[in-house]
Target: DUF6950 domain-containing protein
Amino acid sequence: MKRFNNWRSRLRDEISRQTPLAHVWGTHDCVVGLGGGAVLAMTGEDIVADLRGRYDSPETAAALLADMGFDSLGAAVASRLPEHERLSKVNMGDICVVPVDGPLSEAVGLVDVSHINILTPNGRGIVPRRMMTRAFKV
Model:
């Protein structure tokens, strides 16, 4: 996987496109919306096409992960993107996971220069970079 030369402007446009969108499980959530959309914008590769529309709640998302043989969201992301060995090496545009309350216990985030973009029930939010527990190269 290789980023386009103009990946920064493509990512900025994708974040702007996503900002007003509501959270919808399986359609526009942290995986198929935020993370998948960012990877698609930066590389042209839709690494979550097979997941889109296959779940509609946190419970069905957790069940799908289990059916696919993953014990965590981070493990599922690691099956699609190479993992950073050290969190200190994470770059803008990389994907990460952060801890959250709920059935999945993790959410996908998008690394920015000074924070992590996340998707909340009310739209895009940000959390400190120190919250990431795993990170993946795009």
